[in-house]
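S.,

As promised, the pyridoxal-5'-phosphate run. Input:
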Amino acid sequence: MTTRKLKAATQLVHGGTARSAYGETSEALYLTQGFVYDSAEAAEARFKGEEPGFIYSRYANPTTEMFEKRMCLLEGAEDARATASGMAAVSAALMCQLQAGDHVVSARALFGSCRWVVEQLMPRYGIEVTFVDGRDLSAWEQAIRPNTRVLFLESPTNPTLEVVDIAAVAALSRQAGATLVVDNVFATPLWQRPLELGADVVAYSATKHIDGQGRCLGGIILSSKDWIDEHLHDYFRHTGPSMSPFNAWTLLKGLETLPLRVAQQTTSAGRIADILADEAKIARVIYPGRNDHPQAAICARQMQAGSTMVAFELKGGKAAAYALQNALEIIRISNNLGDAKSLITHPATTTHKNLSEDIRTELGIGPGLLRLSVGLEDVDDLIEDLSVALSKV
Ligand SMILES: *Cc1c(COP(=O)(O)O)cnc(C)c1O
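Predicted complex:
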């Protein structure tokens, strides 16, 4: 392989590939649990770490490692561990470095299961948590205590696409000697680079744009080699959130087309956001690529584009939101996102139904709010689908 510095699209086709002796074009799928050794001495050396090689696919696997290496090249990370789902990635990234008596500061607007991990699971193990409005830097600053070990956020947030100033929170984290973990799913690794903005650890649900074709669950944690060696290596080996090699193979194929898909979906999302913003039945449109986004200046600073998600609020509340969803013919009702297929969801009754009404109100998740994940269909067909459905509201 060349020693030249390659651009992302090239890395996503070639990066991390480990060809076998057969010289296959496509990445090989090593669907194996374990590995055999030529001798007892070789097994001993492998276990001692004196000889390179694989031991067991819960620890590492050649196909999974190709996926990890390709993601490291994309993210600019030194090391990574691929996981069975996005939630395995987020929960391992957080729990591997915490113990009883530690304190975590978390943005309050989180993907539903992430919020459960922070709010419900951590306190069971004696980890204290403070939730803050992620947009309010002084709230982050005031929440930090001497025992604060981890700061956690996602940006843009699900489902209201609020944006957190990652560089500013990273500066506070560094000052406090804490670790900043960023869930970067909504921005995708193409439009936002948390490690360059000062974050210590990035987690993804690879289920979303990285697969992007509705097939496999997956996740990944990326960071420095030191952080992974110190915190994640043993935790990962012994708790077993590992990604299946089959899923790693599928996700490697997903990475080859990631830039094309995400660019197209982003262009379509921007057009749809602009058209929805002019609709009389819609109270507000939230899209990080628009000038009227509440944190447009931060978006411009830390994101290369507005990404593939649009949130909008219907004036007619829940009845209007349901009528619109039920009248759509191409855009399907589903809580997934980042897919080739356009998907719409009503967060208040699906992904965020477990939150209390008060917390939903605090997060801006009203009864008329819909979250649209823009897919790869022709944008004109999507616009027509939305406008015909809106006319029936
Ligand atoms: C989907 C998602 C997750 C969880 O990922 P799974 O692959 O479904 O486990 C975590 N965070 C965000 C922001 C997500 O969108």
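The pocket of pyridoxal-5'-phosphate is lined by residues 85-87, 90, 111, 113-114, 154, 158, 183, 185-186, 205, 207-208, 217, 219 (CB under 6 Å). The radius of gyration is 22 Å.

- D.
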